[in-house]
Design a protein that fits this description.
By secondary structure, this protein is an alpha/beta fold. The chain has 10 helices and 7 strands. Helix 7 crosses helix 9, helix 8 packs across helix 9 and helix 9 crosses helix 10.
Length: about 230
């Protein structure tokens, strides 16, 4: 599926300017991220919020496409607030900025609808490729981390709520759960990447998901994956 280090090798280039809101109370880091983003021709930082309260106001007023969200904020837990923040703008892609978050925090972020994670220790320039990938609905998580976290997601159903998923869409969903990129899935199924994107778009719509990672979270919760 690819983490932020290879997110730039995307098969679906971003053509519109991606609007990014940074939510982090570390002023130096936030300013550096904003500077890096604004130096990219297809990215634009619409604001920096140092608290959840400010983030709510800026989401309403700036209509960002991607939210870079710190885990710990002065007025609350950023991960716990993901659901509320996405309600303000349902199409918003949320990327959690992590230092050394525990697995239970990452699981909570996935279940809340986060697109993935960017480590604060990986170098600021990598954020640009991560933002582009998030704007495309890509999952910003390594195959290894995905394999570790998927079994820990909540399970509540037995796959009966989505009988309209086609056999091919279920096959693509299973390959996504294995951590495969669009290109790798296309090679495995001997189809074009465009066809894979269409399958992912269709199954995401049927699941009510806005990103690959959210689609996988819903699939696990509703028992749509083998062993879930």
């Amino acid at each position: 599926m690819g983490d932020s280090s290879d997110a730039g090798s995307a098969d679906d280039p971003v053509t519109d300017v991606v609007r990014v809101l940074i939510v982090d109370d570390h002023e130096v880091l936030a300013s550096s991220l904003a500077h890096v983003l604004d130096n990219e021709p297809d990215l634009h930082c619409v604001g920096v919020a140092s608290s959840l309260e400010k983030a709510r106001a800026l989401i309403r007023s700036t209509s960002p496409n991607v939210l870079l969200l710190d885990h710990r904020l002065p007025d609350g837990d950023g991960v716990a607030a993901i659901g509320e923040l996405r309600e303000l703008r349902p199409s918003l892609q949320v990327v959690v900025l992590t230092a050394s978050a525990a697995d239970h925090v990452l699981v909570e972020a996935i279940e809340a609808g986060a697109s993935g994670f960017v480590s604060k220790t990986r170098g600021i320039a990598e954020v640009t490729s991560a933002v582009r990938a998030a704007a495309r609905g890509e999952a910003l998580i390594s195959a290894e981390m995905l394999a570790r976290l998927l079994p820990r997601l909540t399970r509540t159903g037995a796959g009966q709520r989505h009988p309209d998923l086609t056999d091919r869409e279920r096959e693509v969903l299973n390959l996504l759960a294995d951590g495969l990129t669009n290109a790798a899935i296309a090679e495995r199924l001997v189809v074009s990447v465009h066809t894979v994107r269409n399958h992912i778009s269709n199954l995401s719509t049927k699941l009510g998901a806005h990103s690959k990672l959210e689609a996988l979270s819903i699939a696990v919760r509703e028992g749509l994956l083998p062993g879930s």
